[in-house]
Amino acid sequence: MATNIVIGNWKLNPDASKEAKKLFLGISKLASKMKRTQVVVAPPFVYTSLCQTKSKKLALGAQDVFWAEQGAYTGEISVTQLKDLGVKFVIIGHSERRALGESNEMINRKVRATLNAKLTPILCIGESAHDQQGAYLAFLSNEIRAGLKGVSKSELSKIIIAYEPIWAIGKRQADAMTPRQLHETVLYIQKILSETFGRDVSKKVRIIYGGSVGGQNAGDLMEHGQINGFLVGGASLSVETFAPILKAVDSI
Ligand code: PGA
């Protein structure tokens, strides 16, 4: 069985390097207690070199990447630069980046550049509204197919899909998805992957959930949602709120 994974996406936090170091150290301690869960921290780029660890249970992630190796691309960061700083996981196509204008085509380029560099892409998908008629399913299908265009079967197993319904991000835990809704959507994602890549390899793709995950809902979502872990925003910004999520995942 694939290892479960919890990724802390710090987004544009914290304000200063001193706090970043302290938080990273606290999360390292939590990660060292994990028995079967891989913990990943994705800090803002500027803190990447401060967040270094030798622990196998804690890995470094990035919140984005650019597809080109080098050249005239002001403000961008390459996979090679990330790799040089020990980054292993790259979040790609987060809804907050899509909202700033990132297209499926750009996301696909980033996924392929990340795979070429032998890093693990975390492809984010998610609808803005969960309508009763199921129009969101076609939306998700398009995000998956477009994001994974040109990816080979052998590469597919290295990808993590983060299902993050936009309507459930940054809310109270009570507003997150229900485990049942999550399970239905996970089955649908698996179906789309199977149609495109075949059943055997699709089963190897880890699917994680993100959107208002906390200590109260993590256990249920994990158990009944049939997922392999979480992408956590707000609750990854303090040891107190991150710890119960890690504990819930590690005890499944
Ligand atoms: P949240 O964010 O946990 O604060 O809802 C999740 C995400 O955007 O990755």
Low-confidence stretches: none
Hetero compounds? 2-phosphoglycolic acid
From the alpha-carbon coordinates, what is the Rg to the nearest angstrom? Answer: 17 Å
Report the count of strand segments.
8
Strand order, sheet with most strands:
1-2-3-4-5-6-7-8
Mean pLDDT: 95
Task: Name the beta content range.
Answer: 15-25%
Amino- and carboxy-terminal Cα gap: 12 Å
The helix content is: 25-40%
Encode the helix/strand succession as letters.
Answer: EHEEHEHHEHHEHHEHEH
Shape: globular
Major sheet size, sense and barrel closure: 8 strands, parallel, barrel
Q: Structural class, from helix and strand content? A: alpha/beta
User: Helix count?
Assistant: 10
Sum this structure up briefly:
By secondary structure, the protein is of the alpha/beta class.
Overview features:
252 residues, 8-stranded parallel barrel, 10 helices, 39% helix, 17% strand, binds 2-phosphoglycolic acid
Provide structural commentary.
- The longest helix is centred in the C-terminal third of the chain and has 19 residues, at 179-197.
- The protein has an 8-stranded parallel beta barrel, surrounded by 5 helices.
- Helix 2 (79-84) links the parallel strand 3 (58-62) and strand 4.
- Helices cover 39% and strands 17% of the residues.
- The chain contains 10 helices and 8 strands.
- It has helices at 17-32, 79-84, 95-98, 104-116, 135-147, 153-156, 179-197, 199-202, 218-225, 239-250, and strands at 4-9, 37-42, 58-62, 87-92, 120-125, 160-163, 206-210, 229-232.
- It is of the alpha/beta class and 252 residues long.
- Bound molecules: 2-phosphoglycolic acid.
